[in-house]
Design goal:
Distance between the termini: 59 Å
CATH topology of the largest domain: Porin
Structural class: mainly beta
Strand order of the largest sheet: 19-20-21-22-23-24-25-26-27-28-29-30-31
CATH class of the largest domain: Mainly Beta
Number of strands: 31
Largest sheet: 13 strands, antiparallel
CATH superfamily of the largest domain: monomeric porin ompg
Shape: globular
Number of domains: 3
Length: 696
């Protein structure tokens, strides 16, 4: 009877589709499911969101609250992070440990598109939910989705949580008996276990999403393969396997959702979304300099040069600008402190120099520096630039004669003028430290302010320090002291509670000597309080060829742990840490950076870290990392190995004027002591980003 009801519903949908105008009602964009990720209600579809889409989702019913975040990392890959609040369970039986807080489960999902929809073929994707951890909702699926006018039909097969009702035989079980059964025990929080993939009972699922003639409203209906008899929230009654719902699009960035599921349960929630490829800077920039040539004599006029230097600093963004003449070349040098896209600064600088060009100059040379280390020189031929600025005759356009080359130092020159760079800099910045999913409270926070200051003693020696002051926090709920009962490693990171108990402390205080060594080599040595928990000495060397898609670096450090009771002192723990790191931009994946490191970590365990990130068109970077060392899963304890995710956001998306500053949000499922890197403030690869023409 239930299957007859489903088929009747689908038939009715098809009939309606024949009468609807597909040109006006086709689905604008896929919508999010209850558990996060593109889908219907409880079941996924094969659809992918638009490349770069990021969504925050919330769903609520009597048993669960689902908090999820989904990002379309590539057109063919979707990733979702989810927290599930199990309202019928306590976090633990020990009220002194977790009070009355309900149980929180964290999960990570992936969905991979196998092929796109064609005229006859549907779009097909394969995916897995709850890839690591306790596995309360772990499941795998393969789904096919085909559009017909305003309707989007899905048929799929689920395993695990999605296939609990077992309405079909597992096809993998027919080929290998090891796929016939799935383990019943829950996994360990933070761990990744692939032993059960596509094992156990299987079920068909399917459904349809309908775009109504009223554009903001969509309707959904699905037949699911879960029977809810083994749910962590308890054995749930399921009166119907057919779920129905509606989604109303309030704006381009917000949806509200309601549904009626299992024949007895209401679900409601909302989705907020944006697209990392489509975000644009909110900054209001000064206009580009107009081309109004007023040539100078061979000897520069000081008042004219003074105006040029001012424009180079404030319009082209070159801090501490220097103008020099040698032979037939006019040189400009400075640190690009305004534009993420450094070519914008070069273009502006060239026009500024062209407007008051000295006699007999045929070449412009703009050298960009970073922390007084030359990065790249852009050489432009004057005749070619003049033609471009004045305009080419129709049909005789030419490309600009311009090259990026290794930094050029003119040395002693005939004439030179400059604005002295600022040797002292100070700033205040807000700080938000947070922890999600802890036993004491789902969300722990600390809001404070960081006072930063640095001073260049010489062109290469920098003194840098910062002081943190707490404003407000709820870490008084933080009862767990972090002491692992399941790990034999020294506590190199799990003393975090002891450090956040300090209301005011010196976050870092160090000296750095930095130098460009030539031929693509850069180096630095440093010493002092290097981060919140550690101080010491170390050094780093990086080889980064100009505009190459690879680089390699090595760092070595000796550190001691800072005393959380008196953070100007050290306790008795010390370690030798360091890494050999390779950096690679795959030519076949635009915006992707792969970092692979091997070395020794703070607990003096040895291993490797892989960090993969993607840079979207807006400059937002989304990345994930994992570290595996020679410490066994049993020695490491809960979580098995270190892993986490991060989002790096360019601040000019929010500021009133252009800036190169960035803010980063990190998410680590569990803080443990294995595979922990030293948190160095200055890293050469980050400081040499201008050497990559694709870095924007």
């Amino acid at each position: 009877m239930k299957k007859t009801y489903l088929f009747s519903l689908l038939a009715l949908s098809v009939a309606c589709a024949c009468q609807a105008s597909a040109s006006d009602n086709d689905l604008v964009a896929p919508s999010q499911s209850d558990m996060g990720g593109v889908g219907l209600l409880q079941v996924p579809t094969a659809r992918m969101a638009k490349d770069g889409e990021f969504s925050l989702n919330y769903r609520y019913n009597d048993q669960y609250r689902f908090y999820s975040s989904s990002v379309q990392l590539f057109p063919w890959l979707e990733a979702t992070i989810r927290y599930t609040d199990v309202k019928t369970r306590r976090y633990s039986a020990d009220s002194s440990f977790s009070g009355n807080q309900t149980y929180k489960d964290k999960a990570f999902d992936l969905k991979l598109r196998l092929w796109q929809e064609g005229f006859w073929l549907p779009e097909v994707s394969v995916g897995a939910r709850d890839l690591g951890g306790t596995g309360l909702f772990d499941s795998e699926f393969i789904a096919a989705t085909k559009a017909w006018g305003p309707f989007d039909f899905t048929l799929g097969m689920g395993f695990g949580y999605l296939g609990n009702s077992g309405n079909v035989k597992n096809p993998f079980c027919q080929a290998d008996s090891s796929y016939c059964n799935r383990s019943n025990g829950n996994g360990e929080a933070g761990s990744v276990n692939g032993d059960d993939l596509f094992k156990g009972p299987a079920s068909l699922f399917g459904g349809v999403e309908y775009q109504t003639p009223w554009q903001p409203l969509r309707l959904k209906a699905e037949y699911e393969g879960n029977d809810y008899q083994g749910d962590f929230a308890g054995r749930l009654e399921q009166r119907s396997k057919v779920n129905v719902g509606a989604i109303y699009r309030l704006t381009d960035w917000a949806d509200v959702n309601v549904s009626y599921e299992r024949g007895n349960t209401f679900m409601a929630g909302f989705t907020l979304r944006t697209n990392f490829n489509e975000l644009r800077s909110a900054a209001i920039d000064s206009p580009k300099p107009a081309y109004k040539p007023q040539p100078q004599d061979r000897f520069l006029e000081p008042t004219v040069v003074a105006n040029q230097l001012t424009d180079l600093k404030y319009n082209a963004g070159l801090s501490g600008p220097n103008l020099q003449v040698k032979g037939n070349t006019l040189y400009a040098t400075g640190q690009q402190s305004k534009y993420r896209n450094t070519q914008e600064g070069v273009d502006r600088a060239n026009v500024i120099m062209m407007n008051n060009l000295p006699a007999d100059i045929d070449t412009l040379s703009v050298t960009e520096t970073r922390n007084n280390m030359p990065q790249v020189t852009t050489v432009t031929h004057v005749d070619s630039l003049r033609q471009q600025l004045e305009g080419y005759p129709l049909g005789k356009e030419k490309s600009l004669d311009q090259q990026r080359v290794e930094p050029r130092d003119p040395g002693r020159t005939e004439q030179g003028f400059h604005i002295a760079p600022d040797r002292f800099n100070a700033s205040l910045s807000p700080v938000l430290n947070q922890s999600v999913g802890g036993p004491e409270s789902f969300y722990l926070y600390q809001v404070g302010v960081m006072a930063n200051a640095n001073y260049w003693l010489t062109d290469h020696l920098l003194l840098d320090g910062s002081v943190f002051a707490n404003i407000a926090n709820n870490y008084d709920k933080f009862n767990y002291n972090g002491a692992p009962t399941d790990s034999s490693l020294p506590r190199v990171r799990t003393h975090i509670r002891d450090y956040v108990d300090n209301n005011v402390y010196v976050n870092n205080l160090q000296a750095n000597y930095m130098h460009a060594l030539g031929n693509g080599f850069y180096g630095q040595v440093y010493g002092g309080y290097l981060e919140t928990m550690y101080g010491g000495v170390g050094g780093e060397v990086l080889y980064r060829p100009l505009d190459a898609d690879w680089a390699v670096g090595v760092d070595a450090n000796y550190v001691k742990r800072r005393d959380w009771d008196n953070m100007m002192q050290f306790d008795n723990y010390d370690a030798k840490v360091g890494n050999l790191t390779a950096y690679w931009h795959p030519w076949f994946m635009n915006g992707v950076l792969v970092k692979a490191s091997v070395g020794q970590y703070l607990a003096e365990d040895k291993g490797a870290t892989v960090d993969i990130s993607r840079r979207f068109d807006s400059g937002v970077i989304v990345g994930a990392y994992a570290t595996k060392t020679d410490v066994s899963a049993e020695e490491y304890g809960e979580g098995d190995f270190t892993k986490g995710f991060y989002v790096s956001i360019p601040m000019d998306l929010f500021t009133a004027s252009p800036t190169r500053g960035r803010a980063q949000v990190n998410w680590t499922p569990l803080t443990r002591d294995g595979g922990q890197m030293l948190g160095r403030k200055y890293q050469l690869y980050d400081m040499t980003s201008d050497r990559d023409i694709n870095y924007r």
